[in-house]
Amino acid sequence: MKKIFMAAAAVLLLVQLHSNAQSSPNKDSIPLQHGAHRSGNRTDADMARWRSLRFGQFVHWGLYAIAGGEWNGKIYNGAAEWIRSWKEMPTAVYDQLYKQFNPVNYHPEQWAQQAKDMGAGYMIITTKHHDGFCLWPSKYTRYTVAASPYKKDIIGPMVEAYNKKGIDVYLYFSIIDWNHPDWRTSLKTPADSAAYKRFKVFVKNQLTELLVKYPTVKGFWFDGTWDDSWKNDGAFSDELEQYLQKLHPGLIIGSRLRADERGARHFDSNNHLMGDYEQGWERKLPEQPADVHGNDWEGVMTIPENQWGYHAHWLGHIKSSNELIEMLVKSTSLGGNFVLNFGPKADGTFRSEEVQRMQEIGNWMKVNGSAVYGASEAGLGKPDWGYYTRRGDSVFMVVFNVPVSGNLRVKLPAKTTLAEASASGQPVTPELIGKNEYFIPVGNAPRHAPFVILLQTSRAAGAEGGHFEKAKT
Ligand code: FHN
To answer: Residues lining ligand 1, judged by CB closer than 6 Å?
Structure first.
């Protein structure tokens, strides 16, 4: 009995510690100067917009697209954008590839149009990946598009074209820079420290340059921040974040940039999120509300297994449009954004598999996007037939698996009335089968795409609002 009591007390303590850690910085056990500076999600208009867009396009484009995942007839099994680190690829040769970078078929207006048609509300472009090659003519290095046969800026026209279509642009920026002589993974000697000090000045200069050159961008998407050299200077990344957000009010920066003074990343040593949203969901998505602790979050996804840049030989499972739509809807149902990656070819065109998915997802979003844009978690749990999302009193049932009975079971919280149900604007008649519990008949004819049923609900005063609120974890 005593043992059971002690075990229960321990569990209670753990739960308490965990929930405190996620929600109340006042009860921190470790005093931190460079930990999280805010508790809870940002509530300003820029962040509200980011949150409402829900669907983004990621584009990884750089010199690696020239190699396309192979060199000298051998195929690289890693991610295409990492090919410079492959033993079969001499770095000196890779670093000369810029002399071949000439994307004559790069038409930013077309890129923007297809992203718009896909339904993306924002896009993230690799201004500079780990190889250090800059797609903008940076004045702080010669390793840029200006030195290539193409010569012209890639980023400026892209920002303009996407903005014209109403799509927000975010700039991916890698801290890892394989090309820069002062970049280090760790600092072992005074010479390393001196070099890295110069490198940090270079980083700050480039970031300032990007914001000044492209003032309409909405945020930075940082990457390559896991090395000791970076993690061990939490003061720098903290000051950098504050500097950038002062320079460009409203700027959105996820949790990848910073480390606290103890080297903790994403979440500080007291387990509070650093940055404006949780940015660690890469090629995986949360399963339940508790996984995201009420934080804003974003998941980034590749179409094949692990390829971000262009790889001519996609290996492994290639996700279908329906699978990707399911990931998008699942993300919405868990209060997060979903960003789908594309890796254009070196000439500036997209491979047919990507074009097809953009079109198919776009066709689905044109009809069903209201279940995604501005929508979030419904607080109704995860049904077997798919996902619930919600915007105000509109509850969307996004159906992926119809049971053989052809009836979808729905249970609403107490004191919540189901005013009407419809599918594609056509009324559907729910059957009341229990207290606040319904069958929604949809038949069981074979379907080739997920579909949406809209439930208009209304809540009486004193209704169990808690069921509709974010999970308290
Ligand atoms: O190493 C990179 C990878 O190439 C790609 O850019 C992804 C995108 O999220 N980020 C890094 C790994 O986290």
So the answer is: 60, 79, 81-82, 223, 282, 300, 308
